[in-house]
Amino acid sequence: MVISAAGMAICLLCGSCGGPGTRESAAGSASLSKGAGLPLSEAFREVREEQEEREIQEAQERAARLEYYHVCDSGTIVEDALTEEETASLFDSSEISDEVFARMDGVSYVENDNIALSELRYLRMLYMGFDGQPHVGEMVVNEQIADAVLEIFRALYDNGYPIEKMRLIDEYGGDDDASCLDNNTSCFNYRVVEGSTHLSRHAFGMAIDINPFYNPYVTWENGVEHSSPPGSEPYADRSWEFPYKIGGEGDLCLELFEEYGFTWGGNWRTLKDYQHFQMDS
Description:
The chain is an alpha+beta fold. It folds into two domains: about 5-15 and about 25-65, no CATH class; about 70-280, no CATH class. About 30% of the residues lie in helices and about 15% in strands. About 30% of the residues are buried.
């Protein structure tokens, strides 16, 4: 059996090279070290250097993964156990970059006299998916509510509140119906209120829809109930408990948004928009 100098140093440290009852004198240790071809101190130094190199490599690989989470696609699973500082860094607000605007231009954002691009902010956030794993999400909101939204979603994340998806509505061609049908949580979209010519609060980045398939938009026409998106009809009945329901007893999502001054569409009288939270001023 051949033992390297580094391996010999480890053996000498733990005594694994000697059997039961072995009595190694300082001279014996020295002779073993000499037989390995390196002084004992040199062997120890080699072990330390190898360990330091491994630690540096692991730190560099981790830093690269963390940097990736800042630029990866929405929905990417965060596989690392994050420290508090690392988690905080992934709840970030920035101005709309050229890259993000290229995705929004002519889709969720069009030239208008009501909201300037400079008034919007791009958020990167973490959310706990329906699969129980942390994911990276993104959202565009009005700069006036950016900090509040970051704090709300950080609290939801810390408490394991489930959100299925968090993508820019541009991924759906700006189609609100398609986004809701896919149960996507989103905010900004320059559009009018359904069935009207009035701009939605979404057009100003001041409204957020959360898990919309399970918290539908409900209207009554001639006494007939209509639920949007299609297929969400069972969830229009708020008298029964089901997963992902906003407004249930002790619902953290509703509590947080109301605490920060948002109005909930589930409290409206003439229609119900259970997915919808908006800031009115």
